[in-house]
Amino acid sequence: MKQKFTSEEVINSLEGIQRAEGSPFLFTRIQARMKKEENRPEMVFLRFITRPAFALTLALFFIAINGYLIANSVNNKNAMEDLGQPLAAEYVQHDLNPYETNELP
Amino acid sequence: MGEQELILRLKAGDDLAFKELVETRQPLVFNTVLGFLQNHEDTEDVTQDVFIKVFESIHQFKGESALSTWVYRVAVTTALEFIRRKKRKKRFGFLSPILGDNNEPTVDLADFHHPGVTLDNREKSTILFKAINKLPENQQIAFILNKVEGLSYQEVAEIMQTSLSAVESLLHRAKTNLKEILKNFYNLD
User: Fold this and answer.
1) B32 plus B105 within the same structural domain
2) Quick one: which of B9, B91, B148, B181 has the fewest CB in 10 Å?
3) Residue B1, CA distances (Å) to B6, B9, B19, B21, B189 in order
């Protein structure tokens, strides 16, 4: 391309520039866009999960599950102990001498 | 409505205050963003983004500067983010044809003519805008705010949160770099 202007002329070409203006309906468009954003499924879901009632219900649910699991584990421990005592007693009756089994006939 | 009242009402989520903000600050946001993006359709979208950001983050505005200064900052940041996103898309453009994900052109097809430039300066300003795109980001911000938006050095310094001498230096370097870019421009194109 052939050079038509000096760099000074090009740099000074913005002298007296007027402001460009956008659409007169900008506010309406912004409002429509914000409404659209609000109704997006992700936003509806986000609004739902950040509600205090939902957070409280979730917390109560986890506390209840924890309580149930703790109570269950205590019961299981007792049941294991009940099962273990007779078994242990039975093993004690066979008081094996470890050397006996390895003896040659 | 005074600026303090406007800010208070915006913080309270008042729609009328938001309408006033959009109507009074639209020209400064649109013109600034247009200086960076050099494309009318993208500028319309980014201008909307800027106002939505301003409305949603108004509680972060501490009143240490004028509201317009803060709006300028949001406009510059949003425009630069948009350019970075577009450049990333262009870099990976070989993965898709000319049209991007949302059928938006990923490559600017036409020369940019700023509507506020006088007719006899039109061709020269088109060349200048191409050269501005090649400047480092900080020089680009200072140059656009000063030359396209017509702000004083002091106002540019407040928006860029820097000193007056730093802005002077940025503009001086921008002009030097532009001369260099323009010298090579006819060979580059």
Assistant:
1) yes
2) B91
3) 6, 10, 12, 10, 50
